[in-house]
Amino acid sequence: MDKSMLKYIGKRILISIVTLFVILSILFLMTRLLPGTPFNSEKMSPEQMEVVKAKYGLDKPVIVQFGNYLKNMVKGDFGLSYVLYKDQGVADIVMPRAKISFIYGIAATALGTIVGMLLGIIAALKRNTIWDTIATIISVLGVSIPSFVFALLLVIILGVKLPVLPTMYLENDPIVSSIIPVVALSMSVIANVARFTRTEMISVLASDYMTLALAKGLDKKTLIFRHALRNALIPVITVIGPILVNLMTGTMVVESICNVPGLGQILIDSIHSNDYNIIMACSFLYAFMYIAMMLIIDVSYGLIDPRIRLGKGE
Amino acid sequence: MAEREKVLEIRDLSISFRTEGAKVNAIRGVDLDLYRGETIAIVGESGSGKSVTTKAIMGILAKNGTIDSGTINYTWTDPDGSKHTKDIVKMSEKEIQSEIRGRKIAMVFQDPLTSLNPTMTIGKQVMEPMMYHYGTSKEEAYKKAVELLSEVGITDPEARMKNYPHQLSGGMRQRVVIAIALSCDPYLLICDEPTTALDVTIQAKILELIQDLQKKKDLSVIYITHDLGVVAKVADYVNVMYAGKIIEKGTIDEIFYDPRHPYTWGLLSAMPDLDTDDDELYTIPGSPPNLTKKVQGDAFAPRNAYALNIDLRLEPPMFDVPGSSSHKVASWLMDPRAPKVEMPASLRNRIQKMIKEGVAK
Amino acid sequence: MDNTKFLPDDFELVGDKQNINIDEVLPSRPMWQDILGRFKENKGAVIGVILIIIITLLAIIVPMVSKWNYAEMNTSIANRVPSGEHWFGTDYLGRDLWVRTWQGTRYSLIIAVVAVIIDIVVGMTYGLVSGYFGGMVDAIMQRIQEIINSIPTLVVLIILLTVMKPSLKTVIIALIFTEWIPMSRITRAQVLKVKEEEYVLAARTLGAGNFFILFKEILPNIFGQLIIMSMMTIPNAIFYEAYLAFIGLGLTKPLASLGTLINDGFRLFQVYPHAMLIPAAVMAILMLSFNLFGDGLRDALDPTMKEG
């Protein structure tokens, strides 16, 4: 890794921090400046309200509140829950859930990317045959059918009609419980990756360097595995970013359909009950995971592709 | 001339391509001979079928292309001195791949910027064919690759081995492509427009390099080009191709100083040179025929100012030019009954000048 | 040679009887016919168009002619499965789902149209301005776009959720925030490509103003790409509406969109899956049709982009 790469990574991390700060500020201001408080549902007199507000530090000026919030956040303290889990530490509520959401997201991305690449490669190699058609149909369906519809279908078929999989999250069997949500989430990844891989692979197969490799007298297997695959698959990394965005949006609903104790359900609940600190913590974690993944993707692309890694010579 | 050893003999080769709803007869009965250590050039406009012919020799026709008829006999001498001749058309894909391609016949491509694998080091790409075909050990292949790279004029070859293609200039990359072609000690080298994509200043150097290597390794070379300047520099024999047929063939002197086919006249007239006094560069009128249709008569007739009535009706056979064993022309003008037609005066002047200056070698 | 018969005039020059300067021109068709031809060859695209037309017609006609009203409740017939009386069954409040589904499709289609308008008004304009003026303007606009783009859609939605009440307006605002970025990127890239073309330079040297060049020279030449792009946003928008409805940001009752229908059906879907599956299927078919249509359009307008 040379200097310019390190400099690039440094710049990206800096931008990421700024973005996260912007997101946090907007969220904080939005939640604090708007009418309504987390305690609307509790019938309280104005005096009682003042007491409650003072208890959570909500009586101070917004800027001071924000300062305190940031200070605590650095220490890993995301404040207390106001409504849903009264007075419990948000970090303790949210972190285990974030872990589950994160693992599901990674599993769905990995599964989707691998299956999608395979499909795309097969479609490109067996172009204009039944295999290609099947892969195309799968990818059009995968792009067209929202992940939560897939989740519903899987729950109805595999969970209700032929009950082979649980429709709920089982503490003691997290792997079996994860099958439906992870498969449902991975469908759109499969579709997008397959489409992209097919196009890439077809253009690689038609490239001049493949003709040269063919002229070297290599057999088909060597041609594909040594020369074509690497060149076709490297660019796939670039589409994983946008795919992750879709995936993350999908998790919220898929989790709630499959009763997964992830960030999705608690985020929806906290929004409906104005539980500010949980909203803040969840959004922050989503944003953090997203930005971190984007950073990892961009950097790894730079590391894998020699044209970017080594820059121009001479 | 000493005993010439025939390396390649193509007879009556016809190739067609299936495209959407139509059959394109890209090659229509081509004969070609190549002898050991000699160089032939195939000249023609794009679409004339020159590249298709060489792809057929390599067995790398596109999937929708088929060889309808003909033979491509390739002769080589094994290290023990025994001679073998095989018809490439009859060989299986597997045989061509493991015996011919890259091993006995190698190819240099047009665009060095795109013909190297962008994610593989130069070293690996040069070492690959010998390790694959001959099972050369890694150490030995490395040594030979470094040797090859310095042989093709790459400075600091050891460092270059670790480079990726994008770190090298176009000329350097073409040298690498040549090194790859030579890595398995082929007998026959096919150069498909090897200098078209390069800067003019580098073109001559690459041509010289190929010539030097040819002499050193006793290679037979086929050049495919539309550039008569290249032909003049390198070729012993020239085949002029038009619409999938060879319409005139002969030694370099015969084609340049005594062209007989009106199309060759056109090509020579269209060749730019420094002191052309005409205001405008000559171009051949019209455009090449649509090969999805059956060609009636001489394919060049519709663009030919010297066309005879028979040209529109019957395809001309190959006529021998009197007094030469090598010069052949496919034009009815060569028939004794045809009117005597002379090449345009401007071309005659040009040729006079060329002879004086000795453009062809 | 020996058996060829020669005619008496065989060896006379054709001379001026033929014009050697004529280029043989292959028969060509007008461009739109070419596009239409290519489009028609694409079976998937044709099926897509037919489905879109059928769905649109049903969405317009069914709520007008049906004997049921989409808001009419009758709890005595709640949760009926599809039958001759109620073709798609009824929901948990006894409302006829046949009518509600097509009524909901109306809203989904309206949202799709709005999304395309947003794409054109916001995305295209942003891309045009950024790409055409370049320099400082472009640099600033690109940085802004980068920051907005690096905020995940989900977080944008959360922010909206904390601020807004569920309504059609909210859905549209959510679309405005998220949908225009891909469009503006494509537009900008296309403008950058076309801007240096000879005909634009020609117009400029002839003294044409920026406005004229943008609308008369650049826009017509990149329009194909933009149409393709906006067709691709439709399925996305339909999905987002459903998604927003699902997390409680959709239309307010008794209005229905496909998303709110799916959300309503979700409560009892393990027992009465029809209430959820039917609108979900209609939505999936609608998205599929637009995807097929968009793909077909892309291949027809720009065959070089076609991979198949």
TrEMBL record, chain A:
What is its membrane topology?
Multi-pass membrane protein
Q: Which family does it belong to?
A: Belongs to the binding-protein-dependent transport system permease family.
Q: Which GO terms describe its cellular component?
A: plasma membrane
Q: Which Pfam families match?
A: BPD_transp_1, BPD_transp_1_N
Q: Where in the cell is it found?
A: Cell membrane
Residues crossing the lipid bilayer are 12-34, 102-125, 137-160, 175-194, 228-245, 278-304
Q: Which SUPFAM superfamilies match?
A: MetI-like (SSF161098)
**Quick one: a GO biological-process term for this protein?**
transmembrane transport
PANTHER family in the cross-refs: INNER MEMBRANE ABC TRANSPORTER, OLIGOPEPTIDE TRANSPORT SYSTEM PERMEASE PROTEIN OPPB
**Protein known as:** ABC transporter permease
What are the protein's UniProt keywords?
Cell membrane, Membrane, Transmembrane, Transmembrane helix, Transport
The organism's place on the tree of life at top rank: Bacteria
Q: What is its main location?
A: membrane
Per UniProt, residues of the ABC transmembrane type-1 domain are 98-297
From TrEMBL, chain B:
Annotated Gene Ontology cellular component terms: plasma membrane
Membrane topology (UniProt): Peripheral membrane protein
Q: What is its main location?
A: membrane
Biological process terms from the Gene Ontology for this record are:
peptide transport
> Where in this chain does the record put each ABC transporter domain?
10-268
* One Gene Ontology term of the molecular function aspect: ATP binding
Location relative to the cell: Cell membrane
Q: Which Pfam family would be a valid example here?
A: oligo_HPY
Q: Which domain of life is it from?
A: Bacteria
Keyword annotations for this protein, in alphabetical order, are: ATP-binding, Cell membrane, Membrane, Nucleotide-binding, Transport
What family is reported? Belongs to the ABC transporter superfamily.
Tell me what this protein is called. Answer: ABC transporter ATP-binding protein
Taxonomically, what lineage is the organism? Bacteria, Bacillati, Bacillota, Erysipelotrichia, Erysipelotrichales
Automatic annotation (TrEMBL), chain C:
Where is this chain's protein located in or outside the cell?
Cell membrane
| Family named by the database record | Belongs to the binding-protein-dependent transport system permease family. OppBC subfamily.
* Protein species of origin: Sharpea porci
**Coiled coil, from the record:** none
Q: Which CDD domains does the annotation name?
A: TM_PBP2
Keywords from the named record: Cell membrane, Membrane, Peptide transport, Protein transport, Transmembrane, Transmembrane helix, Transport
The record's section on PROSITE patterns has:
ABC_TM1 (PS50928)
* InterPro entries membership: BP-dependent_transpt_permease, MetI-like, MetI-like_sf, OppC_N
The protein's name = ABC transporter permease
Q: Where are the transmembrane segments?
A: 45-65, 107-133, 227-251, 271-293
Pfam families in the cross-refs: BPD_transp_1, OppC_N
Domain ABC transmembrane type-1 residue range list = 105-294
Q: Does the keyword Nucleotide-binding apply?
A: no
Membrane topology is: Multi-pass membrane protein
Q: Which GO terms describe its biological process?
A: peptide transport; protein transport; transmembrane transport
